[in-house]
Write a structure and sequence with these properties.
CATH class: Mainly Alpha
Strand content: under 5%
Oligomer: single chain
Helix content: 55-70%
Protein name: Terpene synthase
Number of domains: 1
Pfam families: Terpene_syn_C_2 (PF19086)
Organism: Algoriphagus locisalis
Structural class: mainly alpha
CATH superfamily: Farnesyl Diphosphate Synthase
InterPro entries: Isoprenoid_synthase_dom_sf (IPR008949)
């Protein structure tokens, strides 16, 4: 259990998954000189990015987890690439990222060598029902829409507001993608868990903003609730407000989880998985170097 109070577990074959994904990345991740991009590989290795999926899905079968970790690798790399791209190029890339367009042979994806299309199709194949495939496609498109929203904000096309940030951030973060991957083809639980899932998504996003605020302030990225609140209330009050909401959400999540779990053993199994996803995400976010400031 981490210091916020949610249990954490790590998939038993995490080291093997990490090695597998890094070895796979060496087959396509090259720099401008056509050589393996050791700089990116080392950065991702030191940030333990491939451990992320292993914390979120500690009970998942190894082969499936390997496929998901590869998709997440591409999503992390996409996030880094978008930070380096000019607005028009970023917009063009994201146009190729919707589920209806995410097919092999797309111009920018091919040019970048980013196999996110192949990884997406592989993961989609793990869903056996059309309903669950449709749900995953839907949350993927919302994720892409969230990234497009961030690009438009950075380009000054739209004005970044706190209200819009709170609405869009859970989608651009990818947290709902993780929840759908966890859901798989579960259809047996009877209790509606949408509110609990939304609270977990909100908790994850707020916690991440608290951890990453210093780094994002240094790079002038305003897509952070702590920074947006600081503009209106000052840093100390902003942190107090975020901590206060996290404390409220913590109690609400625990209470809702207990209520839903009491309905049936199937509900309890689903809720336990959601809480492990939450705890794993919090623990990994606190440990990775990805959100640490430069110290300058």
């Amino acid at each position: 259990m981490n210091d916020i109070g949610f249990h954490t577990a790590l998939q038993i074959n995490t080291k093997d998954t990490d090695d597998s994904v890094l070895t796979w990345a060496e087959t396509w991740l090259v720099n401008d000189a056509g050589e393996i991009d050791e700089e990116v590989l080392e950065r991702f290795r030191s940030q333990r990015l491939n451990w992320f999926a292993c914390y979120l899905f500690p009970m998942m079968e190894t082969n499936k987890l390997d496929s998901i970790a590869k998709l997440f690798f591409c999503m992390f790399l996409l996030d880094d690439l978008l930070d380096l791209m000019e607005g028009e190029e970023a917009e063009s890339l994201l146009e190729e990222m919707t589920q209806s367009e995410l097919k092999q042979g797309k111009h920018l994806l091919s040019q970048l060598g980013l196999p996110i299309d192949v990884c997406y199709e592989k993961v989609l194949g793990y869903f056996s029902s059309d309903n669950q495939k449709a749900r995953f496609n839907h949350v993927w498109d919302l994720y892409v829409a969230g990234l497009q929203w961030e690009i438009n904000n950075k380009n000054g096309i739209w004005k970044l507001t706190l209200e819009n940030y709170q609405e869009m951030r859970p989608h651009s973060s990818g947290v709902f993608i993780a929840i759908e991957l966890l859901r798989e083809d579960r259809g047996y639980y009877l209790f509606d868990t949408n509110e609990l899932e939304n609270d977990i998504a909100r908790f994850i996003c707020l916690s991440n903003d608290l951890i990453s605020a210093s780094k994002e302030y240094q790079i002038a990225d305003r897509h952070n609730e702590v920074l947006l609140l600081s503009e209106a209330f000052g840093q100390e009050e902003a942190v107090n407000r975020v901590m206060g909401e996290l404390a409220y959400l913590n109690k609400k999540i625990i209470k809702s989880s207990q209520l839903i779990s009491s309905v049936s053993k199937e509900n309890k199994s689903w809720v336990d998985s959601l809480l492990l996803l939450l705890g794993g995400c919090l623990y990994w976010s606190g440990e990775t170097e990805r959100y640490a400031d430069s110290g300058d």
